[in-house]
Structure formats: C-alpha cells, structure tokens
Amino acid sequence: MSSLNAKIQDLFNEPACEKNRGKDAKARKRGCTKPLTPGAAAGGCAFDGAKIVLQPVTDVAHLVHAPLACEGNSWDNRGTASSGPTLWRTSFTTDLTELDVVMGQGERKLFKAIREIKEAYAPPAIFVYSTCVPALIGDDIEAVCKRAAEKFGLPVVPVNAPGFAGSKNLGNKLAGEALLDHVIGTAEPDDAGPYDINILGEFNLSGEFWLVKPLLDRLGIRVRASIPGDARYLDIASAHRARATMVVCSTALINLARKMEQRWDIPFFEGSFYGISGTSGALRQIARLLVKKGADSEILGRTDALIAEEETIAWQKLAAYRPRLEGKRVLLNTGGVKSWSVVHALMEIGIEIVGTSVKKSTIEDKQRIKKILKHENHMFETMAPRDLYAMLSRDEADIMLSGGRTQFIALKAKLPWLDINQERHHPYAGYDGMVELVRQIDLAIHNPVWRQVREAPPWECQPVLADESPSTNNETTAVQAINFAGTSADDLGEC
Description:
By secondary structure, the chain is α/β, with parallel strands linked by helices. The chain is 46% helix and 12% strand. The strands form three sheets. It has a five-stranded parallel beta sheet.
C-alpha cells in the first residue's frame, strides 16, 4: 500500500492543474485536496472510476479481483459504444469468498482466472483490477500479473485502484497511471505520420465520437488513440507516437496528458466537441498544434474551409428550432467539461441558462463559465434535492438537463427533463450532435404530456349542473351522474 499512497500523493500534486499553479511550494506539497475517507466516496469509489476509464478498451479482457458484487455493481456503468470487438461486454471476476480470504487463496485464484481467460478468449491483453478486499488482505496483484505475463506470453496489466483509496475521479487518474506504466510506449507503429493525434477523456457515449471522427478523416487527421472511447489495446500501446493531444475531460486524465508531454514531447490542449463554436475551436486548435509539430501549414486552410461548410449546414438546420426555443430557460445539473461546453452550446441558439452545476469542474472550467454567463450567481457547486425541487416548483426553469439520478426531481416538479450524462441514448458531440441536442430539448419542452400533468385531476373539479337542488330521487341522481360523465372540460367549474 505504500506505493499506492505515494502515487496518490503524486496525483494530487498536479502541476498542470490551475489551482496548484497558484500555490506556493509548501502549499503545493499538501496536494489539491484531501482524499475521501472509506465510505465517503460520494459519486463512486476509486475502483469505479478506474473501471469507467478502462472498460471502453474494447478488445481487452477486464478481470475484477473481488467479491462478486464489485463487478456486478460496476458492469455497464457507461453508455459507451464499440465499432468492433465485444469482449469488453463480458464480465470477468475472481468471485472471492470468505473461504478464499480466510485460507489466503486470493492470489492463486487470480492466477487461475488469468489462465482461463487466456485459453478461452486469447485477448491481446488482460486488465486486472484490485478492489478493497484483496487490498486489505494484502494480495500482491502486481506480482501475480507479472508472473502471468511471463507464463502466458501476453500483457497482464495491474490496475491498483481499491475503492477505499478515494473518489471516482482519483480512480480515473489511477487508471491513466496504469496505462502510462504498463501500456503506452510498449508497441511501435509502422505507419506513424505527421497528422496523428490522441484524444483523451472521450468516452464515445452513445457513439457520439463517431460524429466527430469523420470530420478529422476529411482533414487527413488520424486518431492514433482515443482513450478510452472505442479504443484498441495496440492503438493505446502506440499512442506515444502521436504529434498532439486533445483532452476532452481534464478532471479525469490531465495527469496522463501532462506526463505524455514530458516523456514524448506531445503537446496537449483542453477542448470540447459540444456546440458549434466549441467543435470549430477544437478543430482549429488541433490543426495549429500539428503545424507546430511539423505538419504542412496547408491544413489550416482546409480546416477553415471544412468549418465554414459544416457551420453553414448546422445553422440552417437549427434555424427551425430558434423561434421555438429562444428565451427558454434551462437548469443544467451536471459537472466537469459539460458544465461550460453545453452551456455555451445552448446559448448559441438563444436558450437562457438559469443555473449550472460546477461540481467536478476544474478552475479553468469555472473561469470559462464566468466568461460565458457573465454572472457568478448562476453557478452552484452543489444543490440539495429539496433546493432543486423548490427552484423548479417556482417555475424558474422550463427544463432540467442532468443525469439519471436527479431526473425524478424534475418529474416530481412536473417539468421536462433530458438526460445529458453517460446513460443517455442520443449523441450530442460535433455539429450533427448539436442539432440532435436541440431537437431533443425541443421535443421534451413541447411534449403535450407536461401540459396534461399540470392540469388538476377530474376529481378535484366540481361540475356546473343546471339543477343544483338536492334530490332524494335515486333516478334523478343517476341521471345527474350520467350527465357528469358526459360533461366536457368547458362545462366544469373552477378547479
């Protein structure tokens, strides 16, 4: 555990972090933040974060060294998509039991599981995840992985990110360290060129990176490795030969981007493929970095021409939605890169942002939001569910964009809701993705169900009958009941 503790301290002393750059040397040694204590890792544990980053490597076998529940709870926790291999969809676990713990059979069971996976599936590599139980009983997964790699002749990568180490975000970074220590740089490509790039922190949610990759293909830019979205093991192993890197989610993999720049002189920048101007800015920045690294400067002109063409098409498609959505108010309860990139994308078509969460956002993310919104009161770090509900109940927003965990707050307030996080089923990246996002917002806001659910139920409305006098005649009462059943909404009294 001492090596894990040292690595954690190193991760919290991140020079590329804007917050750390403003500290003096003494304060910087204390790190960015204090790791969460066991049981307090709100939003997911370190193991969950590592699995999120690495599971989209689609041709690799992902083996979780843990009791069964760890793999069951973490399986399929992201809506990523693959264009080929499906091995990543298969769950592998050592299924540690109490007897294994008491008898000290953990390492032996892990070695046996690696052998069985190799014989049955012959993957190019196996990723082995440590969790709380094997870390507590002292299983040395790094030694087992090293021995298995020598024995079976394939890479076996230890991912040392037990859940009690900290939060999900820490697990993201520990996964990046595992790639840096055991994968990147282990294979040499025979087709390296001046237009190769890496994209870090892109998860290909709902296949949205497939809306961006054709744009890069038209520019002659090859994605050497997309980590982790729709990735292949050999692509990641040869990622050190790329000429530039774009970081989509800096809170997850900024440490990987910085260390790749230090080791292999690969410059990086943080950008977004959300929104029209965001996508255009990212394409231009990629082209500029490639030119600095030796690519022909003519790519700058081709990039501008492509952007002009795609923006024209996108704005023509969005023109139909502007009259329907201009002035509509959106509450954005998400975090990270989406806290500013989606905000900017929506404001481009006249949507008003009444609030955006900056949880898990970096200092740079928050600075971007301040420039975009021009009002810090629209930013909130966290908001309790009751406060979100109160805000929506006061009719301060027309729709809420968030993850699935907070959808019921909007539904209880009888307001439209749209999934913007990893569980969504629609891609929102790139020019076409922006059009799709606006279309989904339009469908949600103008869905007639919201008008219906806000109406008072029929049993709370009193009918206006011609004869209000009481009657003891059963036949007359029955006739009144029949008339009430056939009464239209216009005939009903105030509700």
